[in-house]
Fold each of these.
Amino acid sequence: MKTLVCNECRTPKMVPDSFQGESVNCSKCGAVIFVPRTPTTRSPGVAPSRRAETTGNSVLATIG
Ligand SMILES: [Zn+2]
């Protein structure tokens, strides 16, 4: 269960965790509230947008 706040009327709304990634309607004004998806599992060492800093360049063929 998490509490979201309506963007339109600022009314707090309780939303079950199972609604993650979906949209609910504000019970007061009816506006659509998007429920953000929060990661429940953390895998160490795997972070998005932080990879491939060490590609290529280290070994250039020295043939001869
Ligand atoms: Zn509202």
Note: The chain has a mean pLDDT of 82.
Amino acid sequence: MMVGVVRYTLICMVSLCIAMVSVSGQAPCTLSNVPLQQNFDIDLFLGKWYEIEWVSPAYMDAGELWINYYHVYSADEYGVVTGYYSGKDSNTAQCFLGGLAVLKSTDHPAKMLLYNEQKRKVMYDYWIVSTDYTSYAIAYGCLNRAPDSNDTCATARSWLWGRSRSLPESVKVNARTIFESLCMNLTLLYATGWRGDECIPDVSGFAERVNTDRVSFLFPLLTVVFVLSRSFCC
Ligand SMILES: *[C@@H]1O[C@H](CO)[C@@H](O)[C@H](O)[C@H]1NC(C)=O
Ligand SMILES: *[C@@H]1O[C@H](CO)[C@@H](O)[C@H](O)[C@H]1NC(C)=O
């Protein structure tokens, strides 16, 4: 009798344990479990970020990879954040430039929505997982959600950004651990090449153009921008 109870209890504990392990194995891969930088301050995040490494959703041929790739973010007098990206085609060394409009999500300060005026013409989730603002930033981007579950990302990317062109190995190792916890496939991790000068595009009047493009494309979101603009609140 006693042996039976003990055995039954053991079986229960083991199955509970298995259940807990399988739940905790899945948990970080849902969007609601993506870790986010606490007290994220977009003003400290503005400026230039050099791409150090990133995890692609699909295999990339070496010839498809961009070099000298970076982002720059700035805020206008109303606190509306825009940005641009620039880099070079690794084969032709041709410079390219694209505009980014940034919306801050009401959900969490570290959750942003990016609108790329050159490509896709969609807003996608761009979240800051961890940053010290002065040396590195780890970002998670979800291009589209799984059709059957809005808490699962179907096409995800992750980035390690630096305030300079290179980062210490320890920072990269830490970033890869975080990428893994985000269920990114590390065989699809690519280091960004930095060779020679970076492209310094002429971006005068660019922020206005990006904003106008974004506004005309996403008119309903205009209200969100107004609500979030600091100039209207204080
Ligand atoms: C998913 O959809 C449900 C119901 O529509 C909603 O309550 C929830 O906030 C959504 N979750 C995310 C992460 O968007
Ligand atoms: C990771 O990516 C590689 C290369 O595309 C692929 O062969 C492998 O199956 C992927 N692993 C997982 C767990 O998806």
Note: The CA atoms of residues 88 and 95 lie 4 Å apart.
